């Protein structure tokens, strides 16, 4: 899609405003990867940083000169010149020019409180700072966007002065004038009325943008109202990253604009890249994805209640406001104590298995699941355990091994300041007794080693399977240290990753259950899938 076809410009500030979120620290390599991904997706403008603020951003813009972007335009961000300083000698302005981007966004104060209290200068000097900086950058051939910081608060406090700041920016030939709700406290009806007054004051040829923060959880709503009032440019971040409560979330704004407001932004295949983009940014930023984030979250098209699932299977529109596949997400059905037979059937169908809900086996599995979930199991987080349960409930299977006993011990050496753990396990595998010992830095690690040692001679492919993550959740917190626990374990064989779980009042027993399921699934997953498909043919 060509840039000129869009009625709305998308301006991403993940690398600048988004990176100010607590807990995010992007490397130079991270920033370059994100720019490439945003360009591939089709963002109009990428605000890549503030070159005058830190050495990392200065180095980024040096390397960014070699980037070959297909769609996006890089933007350098900075402030107006300092008070009572010439624009030509202002270090921040010089850094902006050295960034070598065609587009520069500068921010200036539009709230008289900030002019007096933060800048410690006069209202007239602030106006000069705005116009001087924009005019000077224009003279150097740059396209200048003016970000009116704290505009809505400034307007409510001193309307005449806030509008005068915008007028100076317009007269200085700023290409875009961005209205910023920097504190995130403005309500949608206020946004609407203020934008109408701004448009009336500046005239038709002023091109406006909106930049909202989410402190009142209204950043997306306020941005939508601004679009309805005719602004051209929408600013935000991927996943709503940003300082404090974050910025307007482009992962919500984009599908709302295109799918609900019918404003064409992306071709169909491009829009499907939205959910993968969201998860890519989370991964690069080392942020745990918000599974319940609208549109792109893993759980926002998940259905748990049996009645809901039955309706969705009949017609997805009953409980889904859009088709998740339009934005690269997918429908999920989770298995829980709220499940009906429809959940089991849908989940099995995801695995390529067609079940008949009227068969007693299906209802028996449902009964088993409800009983287990009453104990604390949650199969929605451990689909491999569910698949094993389904397999054992439908097919005649031999156990991988029979347990005789296991034992773990933990010792602490005060002199060495070290913990030593040992696990002993005795199994019957293929009719033979296998007795093994494992040691490790904890009882679960020792148990894992003992299990592997006991099974490795019988199952050589176990060597490819590795434990990749281990998580414990305490159940029934009122019982304190005597509470039950839910253990989830991720295993991988370099081709796939799967999750299993165990529940017990004893964390070692819960870990053992999850370990065994994880190992069994890894060793027998091909047989499990084959058997389930064969049995489903008989049910048809």
Automatic annotation (TrEMBL):
Broadest EC class assigned to this enzyme: transferase
UniProt-listed InterPro entries: 2-isopropylmalate_synth_dimer (IPR013709), AIPM/Hcit_synth_CS (IPR002034), Aldolase_TIM (IPR013785), Citramal_synthase (IPR005675), LeuA/HCS_post-cat (IPR054691), LeuA_allosteric_dom_sf (IPR036230), PYR_CT (IPR000891)
A GO MF label: (R)-citramalate synthase activity
UniProt key word Amino-acid biosynthesis: yes
Catalytic activity: pyruvate + acetyl-CoA + H2O = (3R)-citramalate + CoA + H(+)
UniProt pathway annotation: Amino-acid biosynthesis; L-isoleucine biosynthesis; 2-oxobutanoate from pyruvate: step 1/3
Top-rank lineage group of the source organism: Bacteria
One record GO biological process: L-leucine biosynthetic process
Annotated keywords: Amino-acid biosynthesis, Branched-chain amino acid biosynthesis, Isoleucine biosynthesis, Transferase
Residue stretches making up the Pyruvate carboxyltransferase domain: 8-272
Enzyme Commission number(s) of this protein: 2.3.3.21
Cited Pfam families: HCS_D2, HMGL-like, LeuA_dimer
Entry similarity comment: Belongs to the alpha-IPM synthase/homocitrate synthase family.
Protein name: Citramalate synthase
Native species: Thermodesulfobium acidiphilum
């Amino acid at each position: 899609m060509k840039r000129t076809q869009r009625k709305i410009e998308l301006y991403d500030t993940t690398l600048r405003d988004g990176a100010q979120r607590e807990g995010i620290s992007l490397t130079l390599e991270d920033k370059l990867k994100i720019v490439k991904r945003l360009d591939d997706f089709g963002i109009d403008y990428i605000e890549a940083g503030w070159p005058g603020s830190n050495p990392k951003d200065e180095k980024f813009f040096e390397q960014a000169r070699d980037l070959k972007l297909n769609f996006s335009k890089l933007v350098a961000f900075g402030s107006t010149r300092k008070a009572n300083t010439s624009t030509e000698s202002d270090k921040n302005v010089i850094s902006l020019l050295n960034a070598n981007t065609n587009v520069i966004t500068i921010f200036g104060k539009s709230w008289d409180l900030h002019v007096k209290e933060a800048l410690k200068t006069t209202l007239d000097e602030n106006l000069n700072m705005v116009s001087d900086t924009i005019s000077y950058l224009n003279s150097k051939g740059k396209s200048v966007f003016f970000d009116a910081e704290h505009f809505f608060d400034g307007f409510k406090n001193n309307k005449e002065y806030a509008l005068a700041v915008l007028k100076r920016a317009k007269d200085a030939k700023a290409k875009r004038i961005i209205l910023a709700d920097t504190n995130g406290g403005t309500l949608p009806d206020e946004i609407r009325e203020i934008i109408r007054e701004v448009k009336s004051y500046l005239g038709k040829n002023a091109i406006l943008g909106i930049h909202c923060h989410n402190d009142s959880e209204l950043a997306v709503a306020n941005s939508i109202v601004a679009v309805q009032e005719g602004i051209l440019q929408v600013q935000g971040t991927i996943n709503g990253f940003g300082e404090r409560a974050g910025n307007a979330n482009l992962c919500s704004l984009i599908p709302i604009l295109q799918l609900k407001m019918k404003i064409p932004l992306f071709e169909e295949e491009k829009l499907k890249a939205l959910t993968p983009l969201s998860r890519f940014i989370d991964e690069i930023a080392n942020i745990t994805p918000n599974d319940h984030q609208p549109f792109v979250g893993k759980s926002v098209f998940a259905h748990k209640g049996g009645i809901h699932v039955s309706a969705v299977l009949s017609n997805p529109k009953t409980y889904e406001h859009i088709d998740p596949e339009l934005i690269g997400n997918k429908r999920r059905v989770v298995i829980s104590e709220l499940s009906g037979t429809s959940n089991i059937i849908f989940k099995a169908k995801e695995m390529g298995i067609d079940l008949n809900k009227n068969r007693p086996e299906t209802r028996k599995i449902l009964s088993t699941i409800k009983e287990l979930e009453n104990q604390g199991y949650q199969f929605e987080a451990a689909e491999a355990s569910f698949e094993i349960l389904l397999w054992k409930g439908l097919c005649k299977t031999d156990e991988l091994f029979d347990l005789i006993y296991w034992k773990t011990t933990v010792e602490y050496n005060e002199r060495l300041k070290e913990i030593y753990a040992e696990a002993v396990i005795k199994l019957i595998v293929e009719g033979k007794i296998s007795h093994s010992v494992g040691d490790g830095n904890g009882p679960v690690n020792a148990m894992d080693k003992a299990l592997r040692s006991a099974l490795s001679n019988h199952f050589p492919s176990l060597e490819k399977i590795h434990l990749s993550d281990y998580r414990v959740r305490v159940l029934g917190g009122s019982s304190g240290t005597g509470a039950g626990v839910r253990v989830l374990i991720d295993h991988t064989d370099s081709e796939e990753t799967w999750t299993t779980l165990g529940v017990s009042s004893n964390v070692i027993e819960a870990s053992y259950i999850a370990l065994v399921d994880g190992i069994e699934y890894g060793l027998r997953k091909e047989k499990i899938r084959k058997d389930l498909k064969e049995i489903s043919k008989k049910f048809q």
